[in-house]
Amino acid sequence: MVKIENLKVGYHVAAKVGMFVNDIETPALIVDLDAFEWNLAKMREAVVQNGVALRAHAKAHKSIDVAKKQISLGGASGFCCQKVSEAEALVNAGLDNILISNQIVSPSKIERLIQLSNKASLRVCVDDLRNVDDLSKAAQEANTVLGCLVEINVGADRCGIEPGEKAAQLSMKIENSVGLRFDGIQAYHGPAQHFVEYSERKSAYSNVLNCVLETKKELEKLGLTCNMVSGSGTGTFQMEAASGVFTELQAGTYCFMDAAYMTLKSNENQQAAIFKNALFVLTTIMSAARKGMVVCDAGHKCVAVDSGLPRVVGFDRAEYTGCNDEHGMIKDPDGNLDLKDRIRLIPGHCDPTCNLHDYIIAIRGDVVEEIWPITARGKLL
User: Fold this and answer.
1) Where are the alpha helices (DSSP H) in 269-370?
2) Pairing of the two strands 279-290 and 248-249
3) Which of 17, 206, 257, 283 is within CB 3.0–4.6 Å of 296 for a Cys-Cys bond?
């Protein structure tokens, strides 16, 4: 538990440990601990059952306190970060076994990456031969060895070299470069995590698996051993976990869940999620001047809307219909909401929502139990 006095100086804190939820100032980012711990336990069961590792993605929450609970309660053995600064925040707080699941190419960031690799077990993704030379030179100068995963394009058409022969050639280049070590493959299909229909996710996963198998076949021809196949996310983790090919999962949102993930359907055309919504924005109705419409104090400066508008909890027909910087418009046809009422919103996308806040208020029942600073908030470099 983080004491309030340890939070950044000058930040006004909306809550204190031990206070009632109704006394929290809004808007505030809150986590239901019972649901959060349920989610951690469910993921731990899945990785243990399938004999895979969990490399939880820290970009979902950016909080050292959440990460430590993912280790102690959720079976996480390592973490992903997207940015060097995210990794720095975790390592400086005492965490180890970090994969920067992204490409690091600028000289200043490579220098920081190499410096960090002397403090913790660190890996980075590579998808370009030219990047190998830069990483190797920096590692040699620092007299260190940096682990690398070759990222292959598995259908997301974002980062990633083409699977198969090209990926194998890049892997060999890494293996033969001083200061670098080829550790395996990253095969992550980001868009597939949000395909609503099960059949679409299954098809995307099948393509991912074929890309991995094709690449491993080419690696074997070159005499290279692929010890690590990393990827997957909250939307498809059950498929990769049971594949017998993936060695670790990069799921992140599972610990909190958001409105977008809760729309996914299972093979039986039912809700697919085995996890519960644990992350909410607590907000207050600040205006009820118009019939059938109220305004809350949570606009898009405190709840991300890139994956859709947030969902109102507890009122079936109340709908968050739009927002400005500091205002959220809620259609209330039944007239259930009134001035000063407090409601919870489920964010459409938890990752950028967390990045908008200084801390998360962890509650159990009606009482504030802990306060977690968002350690890597704004860490974009």
Assistant:
1) 350-354
2) unpaired
3) 283
Q: Give one word for 137, left, alpha or beta, with left for phi > 0 and alpha for psi -120 to 50.
A: alpha
Query: What pLDDT is stored for residue 270 in this prediction?
Result: 85
For residue 371 the two structure tokens come to: 């306060």
Domain 36-256 has CATH 3.40.50.2020: no
Tell me whether strands 328-331 and 293-296 are parallel, antiparallel or unpaired: antiparallel
CA distance 357 to 112: 26
Contact status, residue 30 vs residue 362, Cβ threshold 8 Å: yes
N-terminal to C-terminal alpha carbon distance within the chain: 28
pLDDT of residue 11: 60
Give average pLDDT by consecutive 10-residue segment, the chain, 381 residues. Answer: 48 88 97 98 97 98 98 97 97 96 98 95 97 98 97 97 98 98 98 97 98 98 97 97 98 97 92 94 97 97 96 96 97 97 98 97 98 96 95
Residues 6 or more apart whose CB falls under 8 angstroms from that of 10 comprise none
Lookup: tokens for 158: 């974002």
**What are the counts of helices (DSSP H) followed by strands (DSSP E) for the chain?**
9, 17
Q: Is 63 exposed, middle or buried (0-12, 13-18, 19+ CB in 10 A)?
A: buried
Q: Residue 213: phi, psi to the nearest 5? A: -65, -40
Distance CA 172, CA 148 (A): 11
Tokens (6 digits) for 297? 């104090």
Across-strand partners of 184? 149, 228
CATH no. of 4-31+274-373: 2.40.37.20
List residues bridging with 103 in a β-sheet.
125
Whether residue 360 contacts residue 280, with contact meaning beta carbons closer than 8 Å, is answered with no
What stretches of the chain adopt beta strand conformation (E)?
28-32, 53-57, 76-81, 98-103, 122-126, 146-151, 180-187, 228-231, 248-249, 279-290, 293-296, 311-312, 319-323, 328-331, 342-346, 359-364, 367-373
Q: Domain segments of the chain: what residues?
A: 4-31+274-373, 36-256
Strand-pair partners of 122: 98
Strands (E), 158-205: 180-187
